[in-house]
Amino acid sequence: MKPTWPSDALIDLLGIDLPIIQAPMAGAQGAELALAVAGAGGLGSLACAMLSEDDIRAEIDQICQATNRPFNLNFFCHQAPQPDPAADEAWRSRLAPYYGEFGIEAPEDGGGGLKPFGEAMCSLVEDLRPKVVSFHFGPPERALFERVKQAGAIVLASATTVAEARHLADAGVDAVIAQGAEAGGHRGMYLSSDISSQVGTLALVPQIVDAVDLPVIAAGGIADGRGLAAAFALGAVGAQIGTAYLFTPQARISELHRAALNSSRDDGTALTNVFTGRPARAVINRAVREIGPMAPDTPAFPGAASGMAPLRKSAELVDSADFSPLWSGQAGALGSATDAAALTSQIAAEARDLLGALASAEGEA
Q1: What angle do CA 37, 41, 42 make, to 5 degrees?
Q2: pLDDT tens for residues 205-262?
Q3: Where are the domains of the chain?
Q4: Residues 269, 263: contact at Cβ < 8 Å?
Q5: Higher per-residue pLDDT: 1 or 68
Q6: Structure pTM?
Q7: Residue of 102, 3, 40 whose CA lies nearest to 355
Q8: CA distance 271 to 25
Q9: Alpha-carbon span 356 to 35, nearest angstrom
Q10: SS3 for the chain, per residue?
Q11: Which CATH superfamily is 9-78+114-253+336-364 part of?
Q12: Buried b (16+ CB within 10 A) or exposed e, 50-66
């Protein structure tokens, strides 16, 4: 018999067994992690922002050869920046002392290599026809959005405010991911650039639930069964979990990143733009402390990445993570090196036990 949850809306919508979505994490995961989560009954995701069309096809081929379970393809929908040589030069000048420290030359060209969802990726979606497509930094332009829907995809998108959730609902998404400020990696914010007003998960989720007539998925600071149970208590229909999966052997992160995660503290991360030009939560390292956390002179996303890339490479060659983007949410200290499939099942089991105990207590009251 199918386990009972406070709401089966997410399970029914996506055709999964457990109300858990593995957060797509560009550059940190691939098919292995998506497969492990899907095999346990959750929704596995593939972050496509840093992948070529051939890369995506290869990863999806690996997934489809191993399972027929649903999976999610995730894309960035940022505005492509206009060339700004002056901003690029100012950024290189800001980083010049660090280039000198490592004895390296500043990179000549700006730009970060990340392209927003466009014609090529939309055609790929139409060809691959994934069960689920999700978007970060808002929805794509209307014509592309409609093509994704016509390809049969269920569409999810991230909102960091009630205004963004309403905008996504008007655009026609099928469910909203309420991304609290605790979440690791890039903020999905797109109607505002003010991180000082970003909302925590506990406050954000119920307000989005009240504001839109759509399933709401909680994200940010959720790493165990307590977090999943809390998401349901707030009115969500499930949770999207990221940082906890970075601890798993299926994550494709460096040993330096793993070491940083293993030393996680509740106050050990910050929202910073120094790595890409856009706010993202990462472990505080030298780059975050000395250049940011929020540097006023970064080129537009993703342009800051090209200036940081040679510093990251040089530091990592001497086993230093001083200039590496160590993405992590605020609940990193709750993580442990557990297999991703086992972690998915464990989180679900813990949440069911907690929800069951609460229901029993209410029945006895």
Answers
A1: 55
A2: 999 999 999 999 999 999 999 999 999 999 999 999 999 999 999 999 999 999 999 9
A3: 9-78+114-253+336-364, 81-113+265-327
A4: no
A5: 68
A6: 0.96
A7: 3
A8: 16
A9: 29
A10: CCCCCCCCHHHHHHCCCCCEEECCCCCCCCHHHHHHHHHHCCEEEEECCCCCHHHHHHHHHHHHHHCCCCEEEEEECCCCCCCCHHHHHHHHHHHHHHHHHHCCCCCCCCCCCCCCCCHHHHHHHHHHCCCEEEEECCCCCHHHHHHHHHCCCEEEEEECCHHHHHHHHHHCCCEEEEECCCCCEECCCCCCCCHHHCCCHHHHHHHHHHHCCCCEEEECCCCCHHHHHHHHHCCCCCEEECHHHHCCCCCCCCHHHHHHHHCCCCCCEEEECCCCCCCEEEECCHHHHHHCCCCCCCCCCCCHHHHHHHHHHHHHHCCCCCCCCCECCCCHHHCCCCCHHHHHHHHHHHHHHHHHHHHHHHHHC
A11: Aldolase class I (3.20.20.70)
A12: ebeeeebeebbebbeee
User: For 74-95, how does the pLDDT look when each residue is reduced to its tens digit (9 = 90+)?
Assistant: 999 999 999 999 999 999 999 9
For the record, the structure tokens of 330 come out as 């605020």
Predicted confidence (pLDDT) per residue in 297-347, tens digit: 999 999 999 999 999 999 999 999 999 999 999 999 999 999 999 999 999
Query: Which residue in this structure is represented by tokens 């406050």?
Result: 203
